[in-house]
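Sequence design from tokenized structure. All designs in this work follow the same two-part layout: the structure record, then the generated sequence. An example of the structure record is given first.
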């Protein structure tokens, strides 16, 4: 599937790399009453040391963004 393809080209979901067991999601569907991770920030595995932190930023709606901070 999709994750296998990402792995083959050395890409990774940066959020899941930094937070492998976090139960945070970027989208809530009130119709289906489900949470989903519809935002993904992909990066090359060799560049992970360039990132300081990544977090979901709550904006008080059904869709939250992802904030990525880089090392200077």
């Amino acid at each position: 599937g999709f994750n296998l393809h990402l792995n083959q080209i050395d890409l990774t979901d940066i959020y899941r790399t930094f937070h492998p067991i976090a139960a945070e999601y970027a989208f809530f569907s009130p119709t289906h009453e489900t949470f989903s991770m519809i935002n993904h920030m992909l990066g090359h595995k060799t560049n992970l040391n360039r990132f300081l932190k990544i977090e979901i930023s709550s904006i008080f709606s059904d869709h939250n963004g992802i904030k990525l901070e880089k090392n200077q």
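The chain has a mean pLDDT of 77. We note this feature because it recurs in several other targets discussed in the main text.
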